[in-house]
Design a protein that fits this description.
Number of domains: 3
Distance between the termini: 23 Å
Strand content: 15-25%
CATH superfamily of the largest domain: Polyphosphate kinase middle domain
Shape: globular
CATH topology of the largest domain: polyphosphate kinase like
Radius of gyration: 27 Å
């Protein structure tokens, strides 16, 4: 048996995540993508990086302060990880701005979109418009803040864009510091209107440039020596002692407020900032040189998503795919009757999320429905599911909702929803102490002629009708008696802390799921050793659990062909001789965020397919409530297998991981060009057109001669 513990067999989790963000950045450089889509991908890399710093880097800094000494899966100390992250992130940020300033902005200008990044570049006519706009729309909102002996350095809020300035009283040489927050309530992108309103190129300028140009109007008795934008990132990783918290909801509210004055872990400044101003910011914000990012362009590229949303540029975007109907559910038909006829599989966003909403809405109105139970992790801003649950309670049904208050960056939204549901008469649970409830499950209990029947929805994604248009996920509607019993057990566990003696069909974390995964992987290894058919295909967002990786390495050594589709973090290295030479890893970055988790096991020809909410990460397997569910119906199982086969055949958007942990695009020469996401759009269209839930032209079979 090989020693699978060597550090060289693993990739550091954080560096693997940064490689994922590089792959997203690769879509911004891909000339086959329309221009506005390239802007969108660049914006996504920036928002990804913000969250990475506020959570992952912040967590490492906390460990550093606590003198945490344990090495990570790749054998790196905390200091080594932070140094490597700083090096790689600076390179990534430099590449972001090179792509923007030298590629995308010139392309935008050629398309009649002129983004003015320096106010000094304005024409006289444009400058007059900008100055009027400042006086009429911006000036009344601003609060300039000077710092002197009587006014201490102000609280600079997390993620806000600010303009720092050095000012001096007229006729004096001594400089004081002043700062102005760029107001988040105003549009950051300001369109400069032509005086004659003639059609033609459109010009835009950023709000911070409008303010910077007019800084002297904010400090009338001073000379503005210099002014530059800056932005900080604070530690936003909440630390909640749930055991000691008398009221979890109030404790989380208190911790959310603390995000605004957490430790500064990143400072972005203009690359040509005045050294004296830089010295003040560095001292007052207590930020080290490694965490200072000198930006050669507009700070905070998330504004590019606003550019993407501007009207009039649809010809520079990918044509929008409208989610298609699910053939098994016809308009006007009773959804419970449809589920009784056949389990229903949904593939979002290619197929509409509406049946999930209708399932809850119908249950809320149906006089035969006795109870609705649901878990909510992230929901949309104006959620129809929340409204339906409230209506159900008002209609006298027993409604139990687990609202996960610890869903990162959705805590405030979820607190609002929890209070609203309680007011409507729902029984609201705030989750289990020490665990996040991440599973996606809805149980509807209905009285029917032949007795009580349980209807269940299980999914890989959140009950969020907005992200369901952007994330790829699998959903299952079933009235299987065994799954219904398991669903009841799940909610009894969540509300009453009662652990079931056994599970019929579901595998649930944190107590049972990891062992189930290890058993399924080990079974494939045993089959391979016995000369039986074996094959593992897994599609997840992340893999970083060492025990799971070691089990996969052992299965590879036993001869199991293992094909992994991993969107983001992958600490496993494929193709290492004598360790992982039977493992391949691919990552797909496309128009939709790959979010579904699907698991295939050949099982000596008795193929098993599962979907679930859990990745192969310690947090999912050990610190969250997660559910994995089987696809029992043969025709639906074939459909999910087709989904995996199409993802494995992708030669357009897929990147392949190399044995050193880096990624490269597939060499397309001589290959059929297949984009899985495009194929799924066409497949959803064909299902509606034919009303036949066929499995498509590509089928998934074991490779000939593979352990047979």
């Amino acid at each position: 048996m090989s020693d699978f513990g060597k550090r060289d067999y693993y990739v550091n989790r954080e560096l693997s995540w940064l490689m994922f963000d590089e792959r997203v950045l690769g879509e911004a450089t891909d000339t086959s993508n329309p221009l506005m889509e390239r802007l969108k991908f660049l914006s996504i890399t920036a928002s990804n990086l913000d969250e990475f710093f506020m959570v992952r880097v912040a967590s490492l800094i906390d460990m550093q302060h606590a003198k945490y000494s344990k090495r990570d899966i790749a054998g790196m100390t905390i200091d080594e990880q932070l140094d490597a992250i700083a090096d790689k992130t600076h390179d990534l940020v430099d590449m972001q701005y090179f792509v923007l300033m030298h590629t995308l902005l010139p392309l935008m200008e050629s398309e009649g979109i002129n983004l003015i990044t320096k106010h000094e570049e304005l024409t006289d006519e444009q400058a007059a418009y900008v100055d009027r706009y400042f006086e009429e729309e911006v000036y009344p909102v601003l609060t300039p803040m000077a710092v002197d002996s009587s006014r201490p350095f102000p609280l600079v809020r997390n993620k806000t864009l600010n303009i720092g300035a050095l000012i001096s009283k007229k006729g004096e040489d001594e400089h004081d510091f002043a700062t102005v927050q760029v107001p988040g309530g105003l549009d950051r992108i300001v369109e400069i209107k032509n005086s004659d309103d003639k059609p033609g190129p459109r010009s835009f300028i950023l709000l911070e440039e409008v303010i910077e140009r007019n800084m002297p109007k904010l400090f009338l008795n001073y000379d503005v020596v210099c002014a530059y934008p800056y932005r900080i990132m604070r530690n936003a990783d909440l630390t909640i002692d749930e055991e000691e918290a008398a009221d979890l909801l109030k404790e989380i509210e208190r911790q959310i407020k603390r995000r605004q004055w957490g430790e500064v872990i990143r400072l972005e400044v203009a690359d040509d900032i005045d050294p004296a101003l830089m010295k003040i910011l560095k001292k007052e914000l207590s930020v080290g040189e490694d965490n200072i990012y000198r930006i050669a362009g507009p700070i905070d590229l998330t504004f590019l998503m606003k550019m993407y949303s501007l009207d009039g540029f649809d010809h520079l975007k990918t044509a929008l795919h409208v989610p298609k109907a699910v053939p098994e559910i016809s308009d006007g038909n009773d959804i419970f009757e449809s589920i009784r006829m056949h389990d229903i599989l949904m593939h979002h966003p290619y197929q509409t999320f509406d049946p999930v909403i209708d399932f809850v809405k119908s249950a809320a109105k149906d006089p035969d429905v006795l109870a609705i139970k649901q878990t909510l992790y992230r929901v949309s801003g104006n959620s129809p599911i929340i409204a339906a649950l409230a209506e159900a309670a008002e209609n006298g049904k027993q409604v139990t909702v687990l609202v996960e208050l610890k869903a990162r960056f959705d805590e405030e939204h979820n607190i609002v929803w929890a209070r609203m549901l309680e007011k409507a008469g729902c029984h609201v649970i705030y989750g289990l102490v020490g665990l996040k409830t991440h599973c996606k499950i809805t149980l509807v209990v209905r009285r029917e002629e032949d007795g009580i029947r349980r209807y269940v929805h299980l999914g890989t994604g959140n009950y969020n009708d907005s992200t369901a248009k952007l994330y790829t996920d699998i959903g299952l509607l079933t009235c299987s008696e065994q799954i219904g019993e398991d669903a009841t057990a799940v909610f009894n566990m969540l509300s009453g802390y009662s652990e079931p003696l056994y599970w019929n069909r579901l595998a649930v974390a944190p107590l049972w799921l990891k062992d189930r995964f290890l058993h399924l992987i080990d079974r494939e290894a045993a089959n391979a050793r016995d000369g039986k058919r074996s094959h593992i295909v897994a599609k997840v967002n992340s893999i970083c659990d060492k025990e799971v990786i070691e089990a996969l390495y052992a299965a590879s050594c036993a001869g199991v062909k293992i094909e992994l589709i991993v969107r983001g973090i992958c600490c496993l290295k494929p193709g290492i001789k004598g360790v992982s030479e039977n493992i391949t890893v691919r990552s797909i970055v496309g128009d939709y965020l790959e979010h579904s988790r699907i698991f295939y096991f050949e099982n000596a020809g008795n193929r098993e397919v599962y979907c679930g909410s859990s990745d192969w990460m310690p947090r999912n397997l050990l610190r969250r409530v997660e559910i994995m569910f089987p696809i029992l119906d043969e025709s639906l199982r074939e459909r999910v297998i087709y989904i995996l086969a199409t993802l494995l055949a992708d030669s357009v958007k897929a990147r392949i991981e190399l044995p050193d942990g880096t990624y490269e695009r597939i060499d397309k020469r001589g290959k059929e060009l297949i984009s899985a996401q495009k194929a799924f759009c066409e497949w959803a269209d064909s299902l509606v057109a034919s009303k036949e839930a066929g499995v498509g032209s590509r089928v998934f079979i074991p490779i000939e001669g593979q352990n047979q």
